[in-house]
Specification:
The structure is a single chain. The protein is an alpha+beta fold. The relative contact order is 0.23.
Length: 163
Amino acid sequence: MKEIITYSGIIEKPYQEVVHYMSTMPTGSITANHLPLLLSGASGNEGCLHVKGGPQLYTVFTGEEASAIRVAYVDVDAVNGHFTIFGGWWYRNDYELKPHAKGCQVRYSIANAATPVSSWLVPFLKDYRSLKNEKRTGRVMRAFDDWIAVVAVRLQCKTYRVN
């Protein structure tokens, strides 16, 4: 697995409280902003998502329920403070939480998780090329900043990016 982008932030709430918040996945019909994790660009039909499963593995679909398309799997490992979103055949988001002097540190990364057989195809994908231009566009950084701002509101605390 090859990391493409990494950001870190501080959430000024106790570690266990942040883990509890992030592991409380809603199920049923929701919008992407109701997820405790960042899942940008996956909210097809007017932002409607369908989440099924739990309590460790969830499947996220977009579109009308009868013709829904799977956009991601979400693996919740609350015991270890690790949350993973698998999208498609190559895309992986990881959240690693650790206790910090001011509360909780979150490390967010996006990686190419394609198998060795198919990894050569990834650089041809538009989404991958967009991620490789992150230093120029700052799109994912802004999405991360927006996500930790939402966490600040929901947990009523201070949050900020540290890199």
